């Protein structure tokens, strides 16, 4: 048999259904076999006997692989590959023309929901001299999109950096991180002749001051996924204090305050950072803090119509009751309803199934709660009660920040019906 004939055809992708099943099975395996910690790429390679590069291709769902690869991946997590778990290259192209995926819907398709008032508020803030804007919220509520639109629509020179790109070696010292931050900024601006600062905050301050002096207009420095840095308190505290000093220098009223008025900073971070137990709290209470809200009822109705669903209003009403406008879950549900014509009642009643489209999301939070027994106990009280529950202040604050509860003060109720029915079942006495 010739080499050409023996070569396997790479022609399938994971479907949305297959991806949800695989992620759910992986999360269950992490809880059972890995003490709840996410599998690294190397651990997945050892378990599936697939190369890290192949695993990355499967998970990104952007490059086709052969069916045997998917079968091996599924088998490693005690799953059998079903016809609906994958789709051919041609079928994927047809599907992409018919309906955007949830990630596409969030990043700029016809299914994008404009948050005009919120975007206007952030835009006004970033135009203020020396502004520092913090955008925070639970995972997958649209923080990065809001940051990107605020920065790019400002009309100012913009540098957007994702701190997840800073590897662990860079995050071992403040000096290493500051040099990486400055170098990444000047490369984005094509200032290749800018010298690196020395290994201290003073030198970095002087370097950024010189950078601002070279620009003809203000600079927006937008830092996404700052959680990567905030998980390293030994450098995060000093860096936040440095940012705060730059922010305050803009308001001193004397030289070099004019220079620092040209710097506008946006920080994006996940509310889960408030779960961290550190000896010294992170100094995050400065600048202007914006909490990204869930979709309103009107926005869910608008979104349902954009997915061209029959009886869109009725479907939207049920989703509002079930998900309370949780952005990622609402997009996921509407995409699934539009693409696979699943009845809404079936979608909202299968939340306990490993095949549920909500399984990964729910298992993630279940694992998170299990790592914090005090929060787990408090949330168990909330989901099993018929009335708002009075919680200790710290527990009420953290559950609200995680996006698991709503309430006023220390009184808490589940954010949505999905959380109440799922967690009341799995968090039984």
Query: What is the SS-derived class?
Result: alpha/beta
* Mean of pLDDT: 83
Q: What portion of the residues fall into strands of 2 or more residues?
A: 5-15%
Largest sheet: 5 strands, parallel
Strand order of the largest sheet: 4-5-6-3-7
Give the radius of gyration.
24 Å
Number of helices: 22
**Number of E-type strands:** 10
Task: Give a written overview of the molecule.
- This protein is an alpha/beta fold and 429 residues long.
- It has helices spanning 3-6, 16-33, 41-48, 52-60, 67-76, 89-98, 102-107, 116-126, 143-152, 174-188, 201-214, 227-230, 233-249, 257-260, 297-306, 312-323, 327-340, 344-349, 359-370, 373-384, 393-401, 417-426, and strands at 12-14, 86-88, 132-137, 157-162, 219-224, 263-270, 288-291, 389-390, 405-406, 411-414.
- It has a 5-stranded parallel sheet, sandwiched between helices. Strands 8-10-9 form a 3-stranded antiparallel sheet.
- Helix 8 (116-126) crosses helix 9 (143-152), helix 10 runs parallel beside helix 11 (201-214) and helix 20 crosses helix 21.
- The protein starts with a helix and ends with a helix.
In brief, what are we looking at here?
With 429 residues, this protein is an alpha/beta fold. It has helices spanning 3-6, 16-33, 41-48, 52-60, 67-76, 89-98, 102-107, 116-126, 143-152, 174-188, 201-214, 227-230, 233-249, 257-260, 297-306, 312-323, 327-340, 344-349, 359-370, 373-384, 393-401, 417-426, and strands at residues 12-14, 86-88, 132-137, 157-162, 219-224, 263-270, 288-291, 389-390, 405-406, 411-414. The protein has a five-stranded parallel beta sheet with strand order 4-5-6-3-7, sandwiched between helices.
